[in-house]
Amino acid sequence: MLEICSKCGNHEWDKEVDGNTIKCPKCGYKWKFEKLPIYFLTGCSGVGKTTTAIELQKLTDEYVILDVDWLRNVAWPQNDEEEN
User: Fold this and answer.
1) CB within 8 A of 80, min separation 6: which ones?
2) What is the pLDDT of residue 68?
3) What whole-number distance in Å separates Cα of residue 17 and Cα of residue 60?
């Protein structure tokens, strides 16, 4: 994880980032971090975001398509009695 030093356990957001190297300012430990792009597929309801995401996922296994509804349910779980 970017924010936790595996050597000293420093969990503060005070790490020094230089390219793909992260350095803990408390103990000096350095580790590699691969920066990868993140893309968001957005649009109004019913325009084909899910269909597009399914087709994109079929192209390769080098990335993962996550449905925003799945992420929303993880972040803000609702029980069956609540209204959406």
Assistant:
1) none
2) 73
3) 30
Calculate mean pLDDT across residues 53-65.
88
Query: Pick the residue with more confidence: 11 or 80?
Result: 11
Residue with tokens 């192209």: 59
Distance from first CA to last CA of the chain, Å, rounded?
A: 33
- pLDDT by residue (tens digit) across 26-57? 999 999 988 788 888 888 889 998 899 899 99
Give, in degrees to the nearest 5, the angle at Cα 28 between 25 and 29: 115
pTM, rounded to two decimals: 0.49
Can you give the three-state secondary structure of the chain, one letter per residue?
Answer: CCCCCCCCCCCCCCCEEECCEEECCCCCCEEECCCCCCCCCCCCCCCCHHHHHHHHHHHCCCCCCCCHHHHHHHHCCCCCCCCC
